[in-house]
Amino acid sequence: MPIYEYQCEKCGSQFEELVFSHEETPACPHCGAPGARKLMSACAVRPEGEGSSPGPMPAAGSCGGHSGFG
Predict the structure, then answer these.
(1) Domain membership flag for residue 49
(2) Domain count of the chain?
(3) Helix (H, G, I), strand (E, B), or coil: what is residue 28?
């Protein structure tokens, strides 16, 4: 069950919501309006050369300078 980021079309509040279906659209927790818009989430990619050992991921919203391509 992924956590998606949404923005309310009525009041503009941004919030995260755990959803059971990718088609589910939660109501805004601030104003209660239905039909929030799903936002694009930030990536979290481990920089190359870090090996396979588990370790801390880059901070949320940081892609570590790695595009994931090529």
Answers:
(1) no
(2) 1
(3) coil
pLDDT (tens place) for every residue of the chain, 70 residues total: 688 899 999 999 999 998 887 777 889 999 999 989 999 876 656 677 655 555 555 555 544 544 455 4
Residue 5 located in a structural domain: yes
Q: How far apart (Å, rounded) are the C-alpha atoms in residues 57 and 4? A: 19
Task: Tell me if 61 is assigned to some domain.
Answer: no
Residue 18 inside a domain? The answer is yes
Q: In what order do the strands lie in the sheet with 37-38?
A: 14-18, 3-7, 37-38
Query: What's the Cα-to-Cα distance from 64 to each of 40, 48, 50, rounded to whole Å?
Result: 18, 10, 12
Question: Could you tell me the residue range of the domain that residue 7 belongs to?
Answer: 1-40
